[in-house]
Every structure is written in structure tokens, then in C-alpha cells.
Amino acid sequence: MIEVAAAIIEDGEGRMLIARRAPGKSQAGMWEFPGGKLEPGESPEACLRRELLEEMGIEIEPYAYFGVNEHDYGAVTIRLLAYRARFVSGEIALTDHDEYRWVSAAELEEYRFAPADVPFLEMLG
User: What is the topology classification, in CATH, of domain 2-124?
Assistant: First the structure.
């Protein structure tokens, strides 16, 4: 079981940041709430601050636990911990993704999300 954290990052207008997984990555072409794997002994909040700085060049502030979902991808099972977060600063520069969007809750259904993220869409909807 791999523990992964995901950030539901909101901007000042109530839109959420989603990102598309780049070609060559697992779940390539699918959208997700950005985040990454927890390092040993790392809190989900610290993981999200580190991953978003590494993968997108932005600073965020996770402020509330949102939910958890375990998903079996066959070769690997992940435990995805979602947190609500505020966008703090920075210009988005992608390294692990090939596209990003700021979308409203109503627009989320227009995107094909990685299966582990889908339960969070239902909770936001």
C-alpha cells in the first residue's frame, strides 16, 4: 500500500486546481488533484507543500482534511488522503503534468479523472 496525498487547492474565486498526468506516467492523460507520495515519517500536509513546490513551483497551505480513498490499480494499491488547501504564491510550472486548469465544482464532471480521485469529485459535487 502506497500512501499518497492530494490537494484540493482553491483560488480566490472558489475554483480548484486540477492537472493532467503527462504521457509516460501511470494514468497518463487522466486528470487529478495534484499531490504525491508521502515520504517515511512525513505528514500529508508537509508532503503536499513539498510536492506542489517540486511539481508545480507553487506554495500552498493545506488547512483541512477532506477524505480518504483506497484504490487498487492491480499492480499497486494506493491510499489517497485529500486535503483542502489555499493557493499562497508562485507561478505554475509543470514537471509531472502536461496541462492544468482552474475549474469550478460544476466543471469537474467535464474531465476524466484517475479512478482514485473519483470519490472526491462526488463529495465536491
Answer: Nucleoside Triphosphate Pyrophosphohydrolase (3.90.79)
